[in-house]
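Onboarding guide, step 5: your first structure request.
Type a short instruction followed by the sequence, for example:

Predict the 3D structure of this protein.
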Amino acid sequence: MEDNLKYILYLTINIENLKVYIGVHSTKTPYEFDGYIGEGVFISRPSTYKNPKYPFHYAVKKYGPKKFKRITLKVFDTLQEALDLEAEIVNEAFIKRKDVYNAAIGGGMPPNCEIEIYQYDLQGNFIKMWESSVKAGRFLNISSASIRSAVRNKSTSAGYLWTKE
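The system replies with structure tokens like these:
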């Protein structure tokens, strides 16, 4: 199953205080805004920021998603190319700046995104193995956070059962 993903390096700016976040996002439509503004947050999905874990999440919860604007800096064919450029930009000096939400050096993947997961229908029939919740979520147009929650809680998300085994 070909997913035809492109990878963008983006900058999201808080138009209220001008603080920024830089990240990498995979999408089928790199030249159209898909609602993703960074660090797992989608403007149309309050569940992606209502329980904040990182500075960017706290800011979205505080200011509201309409105060953030995502700008695509560059489009790539491969994830590695996007991560390489992110690593050049989001370095130690960058994350120490007072106008930045990034809390970690760029160029790596979030740890919980690289866990293989398995998708089953509600009758328990195997559907597909996914390399990560992010890839499954993007392909199915559902929240990867809800998939990870379903895996963790041994429950369902979007009408599917998700497991690590």
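Each response can be followed by summary notes, for example: The first helix runs from residue 55 to 63.
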